[in-house]
TrEMBL record:
It comes from the Bacteria. Pfam families: Peripla_BP_4. Belongs to the bacterial solute-binding protein 2 family. GO terms for molecular function: carbohydrate binding. Keywords: Signal. Residues 46-315 form the Periplasmic binding protein domain. This is Periplasmic binding protein domain-containing protein. InterPro entries: Peripla_BP_I, SBP_2_dom. The keyword Signal applies.
Amino acid sequence: MFKLLITKKFLKTSGLTLLVAVGAATGIGAGIAAGVSSHSEKLETIALILSTRNNPYFAAVANGVNSVAVNNKKYKVQILDSQDDQQKEIENVNNAISQGVKGIIINVVNSETAWNSSLAAAYRNNIPIIAVDRGVNNATAGAVKQTIASDNVAASKSLAQWFISNYNFSYNEGVFHLQGVAGAQAANDRSKGFLEGLGGPYAVEQRGDFNRATAQQVTQNTLPSQGNNFSLIFADNDQMALGAINAITTSNKTVSTKKPFERVIGNNYYVLGFDGDADALNAIKEDKMVATVAQQPKLMGEIAFNSMVSLLNGETIDEIKAADTVIVSKENVDEYL
């Protein structure tokens, strides 16, 4: 299995730089053209369809694609935002098909429904598909040419075990799980893995949809009624973890990173995330968050574009590419900032 190594460079260079293109000129939604040059009209198009651009993680995926596409002499990239809306994703896929794109790189909104709702049509039109970060379930065998993702089950399980070991924590102290978007494979896998590592059930579960503002509101609503039932918050991504931290502080509660674990019922809470976003790394450094699992979204984007070009050139590519992850805490956060 192919493995990708995390480096400080990849995490530091995951910001998004994109060139805005007028949707009316392309006919593909409110797209963003990446790698546009003076001869871009002569280039064939590869569509990059993101579940949302309103998340630094997926912005970094786009930046990775853009960073290699800009120098390609044969293909350009059209970046489309599904806004975490399956209907918008269907529109984006259908528009890409109608425009005659040569390939689709996609981070799906819902792993369970994406195939039947839209991607099967791309397959019927002989458009190769590469999935990034989230798999596409129920797809025709061989239709998704490559899936690039972290092992979310193993990574989240390791995070739970790390916290238990390093903080002398037990699930009996209560865990509040902030869930990602319903049907997203990454959310399902992270929930499963953390639960396996925890060794017991979640005390509370609420859906934050991978969104910071949503998670903040959900946490604010949960603290008064169920805040005594948990002391640790595990969020399926860093944006939700940061939203939970905001909710804790604005509710006049305490965010703790103190070792060993110390519970003040209904007052102090520990927070864990997943992704390795820059804001989360800064929160860890400032003792506002315990730890996160760092991924490599920019590198995933680079690999996705290069794999698609190789595929279009008639080369064979690996069906699965697994990206290594690392737990980032106060002890090693400076290596990734």
